[in-house]
User: Fold these one by one.
Assistant:
Number 1:
Amino acid sequence: AAAAAPARHRLVTHDQVLAALRTAATCFPRGAVSTDLLVGLEPLASAERGLEALTAQGIVPNLTVFRPLPGAETTAPAGDLVATGPLLTLMEHRRTLIQRHGLWHSRVRGFPRTLAGVERYAPDWQTRLHCRIRRLLSR
């Protein structure tokens, strides 16, 4: 995190962010708290450990491929180009962990940025009910 966003890291450390996520996960329903897990800055084994730690704490990890903002390409780390096969395996592991820990998640959340949006979308009855309630309440 410090390498990808040094200015932000000076204001809020990685430990502070994790502490806030853990606290939020104790206050909100399972799966209501999510965070982006950057893929490509560290080895995939590190991302896999991150998936396991976050889901065990009730936090939904959104897999995000790291790319520096335009104009920051020379100062930000470039990251590694990760092959599709290992990414698909990591996505499947994420899905398994979310199910194992009973976390609710939306495959659409963060769709433009995250790999989770690449999955074939077939909403279950809970997701359909949630969307219907939201539509009724927004009228």
Number 2:
Amino acid sequence: MDDDFFSTIKEFRETKPSHILIIKAFKEIKPSSQNWCSYVIIFLLSAYTAASISFAKETVELVSVIAHHLIEIQLAIFGCIFAVYSILLAFLSDGYMKRLARIKEKDKTSMLKNSITYYESVLFLYFISIISSGALIVLTDFLPFDASLTSNLMLDNVLSAIGLLVYLLYCFRVIYEVKSTIYNTIVLFRASIAYRFIDFLEEESNSESKL
């Protein structure tokens, strides 16, 4: 049997705990030299939104509103990505999987493994963002609109701004990850079309050789 197939079997037979998969999922959105510009934009947007909400009089109400809006977006995107992931797995042909298993990337892992792992990571990232938004909605629904963390108003504003900044930074970054998800989907489907036409050419050349 092909060594690449043995390697792929080993990659997919390995079952890791969910917390390990979640830790690996965060690597997909870590800052790097390639995405620093998008991180700066997302940080500025998150910081402005967090400051505007935290220093407003109706902070709790505004947090509840933005959490409701974000969870609707997150659920919609999560559903789309899960559908794409399911369709991708269902329509991977035998020949296409063999070719992806033979393609090794920089980390010496097969392209098949990296592609499947990427979609799994994105699903985990959205799961965490949905849980975060849901928890924030429940919390703000039970809090009175004039609730405070401490007896110091300025300290309250600063603490809420920091908490909101972390939450919004994560949510906006995960939403922005849709760009990479679309790109990876396009790469896989374009490669699938290319390999199918390679098979067509091989079939035609074989049929012509028999004539």
